[in-house]
Amino acid sequence: MSGVKHEKSGVRRYLPLLLVAAVALVGAFTLRDYLSFDTLRDNREALIAFRDSNYLLTVLVFLAGYVIVVAFSLPGAVILTLTGGFLFGTALGTIFNITGATIGAVLIFEAARMGLGEKLKARMDASDGVVSKIKAGIDENQWSMLFFIRLVPAVPFFVANLIPAFVGVPLYRFAISTFLGIIPGSVVFTSVGAGLGAVFARGGTPDLGIIFEPHILLPILGLCLLSVLPVILKAVTGKKDLIK
């Protein structure tokens, strides 16, 4: 009887992660046409009118939508970031974007940790050789690695949400590094969204490649280098020999 209960509790542990995967799969096919730049452009006047009449409600709905998109790894996070800038301006839009993204990231992090993270962490802790040394290296430099994967533009957001869960990163470290680490990219895309009024007026499309412009990319890469500086110093000075 106890074995049956243990099996049921084990299955229950995977339900949040399975739900995320199922919703992400469905959303990838059904939401692509709705969470798009064209949708934002075609409904911009209605969105502004609703915001002006129901500002607080607009903020709450926007935050809820952002949390859902990130928590279920749905398409449209970039469009929502632009929308945040378009509706609320660069300053407030950045705050709302970061808040929604962080809450959503924490939810998927917890789902992944509940489903697979604890088991993978236990296996890595019990392993010998290279795997255990890599795990020890990650544990030794968690803050640096967490900020690094958040700052590097090439790392997909959902990947940066899952990897920490699978290596046993504490929740508070994940939440803090997520909130602070996504600030630079959020400011860039939110500011692009804040200028969408002029883009719409001339019938253009936003330049999302702006984050790869040297004057923007180089400071972000500088922050990336700064985040891994402790790891580099340890490697150079030989204080930590992770893989022999």
Any overview of this molecule?
It is a single chain. The chain is mainly α and 244 residues long. Helix content is 80%, strand content 0%. Helix 1 (2-30) runs antiparallel to helix 5 and helix 7 packs parallel to helix 9 (171-181). The N and C termini lie far apart (48 Å).
- N-to-C CA distance: 48 Å
The portion of residues forming beta strands comes to under 5%
Helical segment tally?
13
Overall shape: it is globular
Describe the sheet with the most strands. none
Order of helices and strands: HHHHHHHHHHHHH
Rg, rounded, reads: 20 Å
What is the residue-averaged pLDDT?
78
What class, by secondary structure content? mainly alpha
Summarize the amount of helix as a percent range: over 70%
Low-confidence stretches: 2-8, 240-244
Kindly state the number of beta strands. Answer: 0
List the helices and strands and how they pair.
Layout: H1 2-30, H2 37-42, H3 44-53, H4 55-71, H5 77-126, H6 130-140, H7 142-151, H8 157-166, H9 171-181, H10 183-194, H11 196-201, H12 214-227, H13 229-237
Helix pairs in contact: 1-5, 3-4, 4-5, 5-8, 5-9, 5-10, 7-9, 7-12
List keywords for this structure.
244 residues; mainly alpha; 13 helices; 0% strand; disordered N terminus; disordered C terminus
